[in-house]
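hey
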């Protein structure tokens, strides 16, 4: 069957949007559902990986629309920051990769030329996202509400938010060391990589710079994270191939690497380079350690990276495997010693000094672990693991030993902080900040740590805000469950976060100091609120320049008077009241969906800003986290290229096939690799379902059969279960039932002789709407093909049920299907071609015991009680003999039974009667005579004594 999915998609998209079924209007008294996905940054084309969370959202919203909800599903874009600026600069300088990417995505030369303007970049990609992605995939988003974070009206909203935070005492100002691009200013470093192109997992490390007295009043400065290990110093490491510089800092002359000097200029006042010296010229000299006053020699090491810390390293071989192996190698390298004037005695004197007592370790952990792991070279990759293991156990469980003077006996964690404070107070140390790994700005420039003397923060460490946020999180629907549990810890450790930046950025001016721009996380926390307002700005009913604090206070907080707002803004009173009513109708937000990178970035501050600014009844109700679609080798990244363009994939596979792939290929909470073959498989599945619908709607007979009632009941049961899945946002299980299990039900109906047109049409009328949330275009086409008027997307799904009648009909047919499976398996194993099959249903006493077991409360039935009761009513010695063994098996089976199986076993059906009616079907399936008896029938044919194996739901079988 050749299906033109593209034509079907275009047909129904146009029909939906022409009919405006996507537009959201409050209907008082009707349930509402408000869902968003985290809006994407405007930094280039999106890729197939992004569509996973987006399509999931649309499927959920469509389902809610079909279950009696008025829905709001708005979209927007996040242009704050330097992403669009960096993109425009790449276009301006005719960056080859950028220009080729634009051309590959169908961008003409005239448009490319315009994209050297950041504002044009935002306008262009806003339209790409709306038309090529979200509309192309048939989203029922209310396009009237689209907003972007650099729109003037949106900025007015952010200004209001900042003012509310100030009123609440949550905006604070103090010096700050921030990651910054020297061209664009501060950038945010987090896994979402909103501002950067590399290094999203980097941490800002606070080093202690220890000052070692050297010749001519200079000080060799070593950066360390472990100042308490100074008691174990044996030597100093310098790179003989690196040029070091003398810098004047606060009246002192420090020796550091040249890159470190440049970093110091960004963090301290009046840093001046006044001289230089090659590392090789400093070898074999001595310097005086701070705190201990010990004189130690300077040794060569090429592992001293001039770009890390100060470029100089102190050596503690007792607890640092790298230092120990460095000494081992130096001792072996006689040529290096001779070259730099280092004697054997100097190396011998640099023996490890025990300083920390750690449970489970000897006095020299670095030596011990190196020997245990067989590490003999600085090039051994196991050194990293060895270092982490020693540092972790020593720091968290170690105690300073008797070599450590007044700090002896103190836990390492305490000693570290105490020594840090003492060294800083005495001037023997200073503070220096650096990144744990290389970070690159979106523009390609390197990111450094820079001191900002008057940085503004949102005080997320505020105890009252933290506690209220944690309490509310407990009431929310947060999935996956692991994140529900973990968000409590995330909220607890959240601290002040810089909320504004200086420099060349797109975004909202900070209302309290126009030099600053509100940064990209701070302006994307409360934004779901603004989707209620944005439509009125987009349609010109309100103007940005008049959207003041009084206006927002009234429509979002209910403060003030509507007539006063109308008078002062010039807005229509009706419009103002309409916005106010919309907010009260749509809020709170029901679900915020975003990628897993937001678990520690966006979601915590999203929650905390709602709690800080809005009233409790408007705090959010739910968070859903989606994992990634990956490419071979890791996460797909739009900034790094290599991602399959969305329009190309949609043309090749079809939108609905992609939507089905995203929904079913795996749980939302695991990463999934994009594989063309799998997506093609889902397209094939849709084609087969289209064929199935065509075949079933072509049935013309009206003959009734026993299986008619089962199909009707089966769909009722499926509907009941499907709603349960969607309550937990378990789209994968929903899809499995609708697209895989239900077609099997229909095939079983036909196989069992079902051929009633009215029954089949009723089934199609229930089944096809179930496909509308996930594959809406195909579902609409199917709906139309069976003579129904559009739109299936607006059909209200039946609720389904597990009524006694439904359970009984399912139990009957489950009995038949399992008997068929059992007989088929016996034939497969025995390879018998039967002339006769004898089926024996369970004796009555087993049904009675099963009913008693199912009726048992609080879990596992009591075997002794079951046996005792059964023995009282046993009619024959044989029954009494079988009861104990059966009771044991029964308890095990009932305990392990699925809810569906338990319902079936409890259903009051006559298995003997049911199976006798299916004899013609069984005979046609196996091509031989089939006889059905009760296991207690004395006239049964059972020469091999199979009757004893019969139990409720599982008849015994004898083959001849």
């Amino acid at each position: 069957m050749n299906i033109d999915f593209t034509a079907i998609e275009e047909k129904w998209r146009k029909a939906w949007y022409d009919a405006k079924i996507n537009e959201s209007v409050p209907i008082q008294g009707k349930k509402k559902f408000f869902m968003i996905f985290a809006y994407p940054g405007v930094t280039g084309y999106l890729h197939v990986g992004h569509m996973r969370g987006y399509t999931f959202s649309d499927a959920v919203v469509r389902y809610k629309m079909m279950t009696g909800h008025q829905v709001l599903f708005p979209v927007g874009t996040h242009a704050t920051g330097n992403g669009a600026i960096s993109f425009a600069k790449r276009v301006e300088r005719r960056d080859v990769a950028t220009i080729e990417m634009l051309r590959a995505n169908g961008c003409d030369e005239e448009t490319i030329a315009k994209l050297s303007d950041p504002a044009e970049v935002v306008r262009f990609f806003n339209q790409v996202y709306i038309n090529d992605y979200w509309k192309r995939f048939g989203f029922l988003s209310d396009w009237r509400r689209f907003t972007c974070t650099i729109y003037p009206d949106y900025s007015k909203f952010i200004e209001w938010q900042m003012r509310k935070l100030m009123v609440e005492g949550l905006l604070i100002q103090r010096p700050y060391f921030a990651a910054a691009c020297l061209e664009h200013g501060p950038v945010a470093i987090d896994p979402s990589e909103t501002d950067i192109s590399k290094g999203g997992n980097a941490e800002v490390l606070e080093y202690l710079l220890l000052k070692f007295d050297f010749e001519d009043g200079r000080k060799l400065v070593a950066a360390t994270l472990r100042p308490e290990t100074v008691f174990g110093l044996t030597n100093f490491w310098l790179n003989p191939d690196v040029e070091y510089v003398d810098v004047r800092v606060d009246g002192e002359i420090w020796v550091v690497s040249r890159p470190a000097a440049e970093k110091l200029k960004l963090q301290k006042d009046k840093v001046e380079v006044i001289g230089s010296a090659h590392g090789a010229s400093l070898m074999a000299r001595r310097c005086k350690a701070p705190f201990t006053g010990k004189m130690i020699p300077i040794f060569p090491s090429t592992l001293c990276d001039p770009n890390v810390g100060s470029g100089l390293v102190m050596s503690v071989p007792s607890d640092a495997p790298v230092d120990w192996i460095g000494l081992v190698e130096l001792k072996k390298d006689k040529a290096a010693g001779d070259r730099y004037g280092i004697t054997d005695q100097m190396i011998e004197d640099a023996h490890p000094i025990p300083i920390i007592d750690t449970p489970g370790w000897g006095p020299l952990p670095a030596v011990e672990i190196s020997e245990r792991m067989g590490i003999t070279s600085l090039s051994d990759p196991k050194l990293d693991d060895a270092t982490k293991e020693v540092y972790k156990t020593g720091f968290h469980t170690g105690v300073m030993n008797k070599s450590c003077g007044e700090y002896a006996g103190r836990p390492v964690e305490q000693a570290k902080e105490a020594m840090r404070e003492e060294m800083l107070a005495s001037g023997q140390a200073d503070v220096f900040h650096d990144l744990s790994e290389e970070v690159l700005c979106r523009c390609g420039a390197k990111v450094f740590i820079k001191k900002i003397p008057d940085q503004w923060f949102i005080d997320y460490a505020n105890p009252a805000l933290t506690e209220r946020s944690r309490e509310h999180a407990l009431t929310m629907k947060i999935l996956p469950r692991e994140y529900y549990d973990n968000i409590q810890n995330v909220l607890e450790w959240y601290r002040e976060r810089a909320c504004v930046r200086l420099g060349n950025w797109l975004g909202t001016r900070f209302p309290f100091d126009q030099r600053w721009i509100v940064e990209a996380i701070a302006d994307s926390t409360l934004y779901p609120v603004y989707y209620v307002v944005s439509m009125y700005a987009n349609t010109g009913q309100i103007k940005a320049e008049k959207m003041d604090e009084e206006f927002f206070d009234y429509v979002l907080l209910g403060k003030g008077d509507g007539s006063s707002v109308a008078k002062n803004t010039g807005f229509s009173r009706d419009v103002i009241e309409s916005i106010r009513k919309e907010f009260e109708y749509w809020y709170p937000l029901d679900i915020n969906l975003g990628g897993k990178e937001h678990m520690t970035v966006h979601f915590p501050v999203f929650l905390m800003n709602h709690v800080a600014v809005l009233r409790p009844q408007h705090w959010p109700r739910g968070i859903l986290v989606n994992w990634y679609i990956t490419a071979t080798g890791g996460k797909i990244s739009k900034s790094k290229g290599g991602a399959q363009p969305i329009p190309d994939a949609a043309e090749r596979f079809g939108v609905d096939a992609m939507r089905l792939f995203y929904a079913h290929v795996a749980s939302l909470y695991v990463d999934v690799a994009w594989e063309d073959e799998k997506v093609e498989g889902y397209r094939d599945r849709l084609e087969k379902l289209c064929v199935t619908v065509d075949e079933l709607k072509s049935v013309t007979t009206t003959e009734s059969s026993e299986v008619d009632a089962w199909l009707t009941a089966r769909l009722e049961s499926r509907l009941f279960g499907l709603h349960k899945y969607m309550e937990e946002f378990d789209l994968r299980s929903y899809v499995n039932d609708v697209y895989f299990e239900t077609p099997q039900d229909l095939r079983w109906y036909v196989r069992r002789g079902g051929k009633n047109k009215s029954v089949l049409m009723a089934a199609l009328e229930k089944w096809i709407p179930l496909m509308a949330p996930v594959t809406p275009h195909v579902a609409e086409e199917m709906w139309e093909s069976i003579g129904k008027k559009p739109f299936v997307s607006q059909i209200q799904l039946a609720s389904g049920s597990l009524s006694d009648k439904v359970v009984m009909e399912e139990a009957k047919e489950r009995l038949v299907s399992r008997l068929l499976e059992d007989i088929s398996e016996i034939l497969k194993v025995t390879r018998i071609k039967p002339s006769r099959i004898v089926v024996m249903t369970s004796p009555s006493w087993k049904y009675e015991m099963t009913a008693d077991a199912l009726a048992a409360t609080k879990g596992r039935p009591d075997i002794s009680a079951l046996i005792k009761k059964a023995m009282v009513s046993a009619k024959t010695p044989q029954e009494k003999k079988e009861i104990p063994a059966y009771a044991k098996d029964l308890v095990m089976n009932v305990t392990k039974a699925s809810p569906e199986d338990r319902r079936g076993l409890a259903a009051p059906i006559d298995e003997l009667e049911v199976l006798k009616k299916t004899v013609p079907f069984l005979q046609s399936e196996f091509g031989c005579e089939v006889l059905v008896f009760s296991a207690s029938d004395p006239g049964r044919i059972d020469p091999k004594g199979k009757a004893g194996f019969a139990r409720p739901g599982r008849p015994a079988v004898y083959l001849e």
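The first strand starts at residue 32 and ends at 37. The mean pLDDT is 94.
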